[in-house]
Amino acid sequence: MINFKSELIGTWTLLKKELLRFWRVVFQTVAAPVITAVLYLLIFSHVLANHVKVYDNVEYTAFLIPGLIMMSLLQIYSFALLYVDLPILHPWVIFGFAIIGGALLGTFGIIAGIWAHRFDQMAAFQNFVIMPLSFLSGVFYSIHSLPPFWQKVSQLNPFFYMIDGFRYGFFGQSDVAPLLSLSIVTFFFIVLASITLGMLKSGYKLRS
């Protein structure tokens, strides 16, 4: 019989440990993503604002911010408001995509943590998996501005649907129907979560 009290104590202990570890390197875990996102905002908004067309009645700087927020998991919104007035039309859509997007990225992180033996392997996972998926996700552009081939490539990327649906919550406009985006992101989360649980149950690279 499952002892729920023991399970909760164990879960709380692990959560507390991870939160403390997160806080000890707060400059790396919070400040660095914020600084990076603000630099992206400054550079791309000034360079591309007059050259990239996105949604009707949505300026490029505003279009850019939801993608950056999603990639930084809600760490830069207050800073972004210093640069542009950003509407929120569907807060529950934003909340839903933030939760499922965070869960999806969390499963990526667990898989990488189990797989990697060394820090350089973690860096390789970031550079060769997460970074390409991020830059091909539509953070800096609308998918309709791409040639047909790259549109199809972007449509294979779960990060694209995560950001596109999240962006719908702000503007009420998106490249893909938000319900379809949510379904696709949820599907990828279920697949990755199943892989993660399988790795944990099998003891893959954990027993040694």
Q: pLDDT average, as an integer?
A: 78
How many beta-strand segments? 0
Number of domains: 1
> From N to C, what is the helix and strand string?
HHHHHHHHH
User: What's the shape?
Assistant: globular
- Gyration radius, to the nearest Å? 19 Å
Please state the structural category. Answer: mainly alpha
Strand fraction band?
A: under 5%
- Biggest sheet layout: none
Assign a percent range to the helix content. Answer: over 70%
SS field, number of helical segments: 9
The separation of the N and C termini measures: 29 Å
Task: List unreliable stretches of 5+ residues.
Answer: none
Report on this model:
This protein is mainly alpha-helical. It has one domain (22-202). 71% of the residues lie in helices and 0% in strands. It is built from nine helices and no strands. The model has no long low-confidence stretch (mean pLDDT 78).
Summarize the model shown:
With 208 residues, the chain is mainly alpha-helical. It has helices at 4-24, 26-48, 60-71, 77-80, 91-115, 119-135, 148-154, 158-171, 178-202. It is 71% helix and 0% strand.
Topology:
Blueprint: H1 4-24, H2 26-48, H3 60-71, H4 77-80, H5 91-115, H6 119-135, H7 148-154, H8 158-171, H9 178-202
Features:
208 residues, 9 helices, globular
